[in-house]
What does this fold into?
Amino acid sequence: MNAPAKTPKLDHEITVVMQVVETRTLAFMSDELGLTPIGVDRLTHREKSVVLRPITAIVGVGSRAGLYIAYSYDVSLIRAMTREYTSGLAIACDDEEVWIRETASDVVNVIVGNSTADLARRGELITLSPPVLMVGARTIQGRDESTIAALTIRFPEGALDIAFVGPRILFDDHLNLQKAVL
It folds into this structure.
């Protein structure tokens, strides 16, 4: 199996998806969780690797080229998000880690799910995979045929990185390079 050549179309697609996801993420964090960003950094199409934070939820987005979107959370941020997301629920101390993982996965599913609806209104056929959760910091390694773009949103509570990685054929659902295309 040969990897597809990187194309300007993939770069454009990631740019469009990135803009929609950024808008949806900022709205969700503010409206649903009461978190106000203190800064946003964008690294587009030049990255050959991205370091993920300790808790990362990944979804596959099916579009023309297909890509993965990874929400990677600082521990302090995901804890603050979980407190707000689960406010009003009685949570035992020993269940906190389970709720943190559930929050990380649910947030990416809601935000990217709503983003795909926005993209579908533009005439794109979009599918969304269930979230895959990874615990532990690691690095996504790209290659010449891949595009990795990143968005970092900083909050007083911590940072959120959103990585856009494509095309999907080059990576598995844990963002490891596929050996079959190497």
Observations:
- Residues 8-181 form a domain with the Chemotaxis protein chec fold (CATH 3.40.1550.10).
- Strands lie at 39-47, 49-52, 55-62, 67-73, 127-128, 132-135, 138-141, 147-155, 158-166.
- The first strand starts at residue 39 and ends at 47.
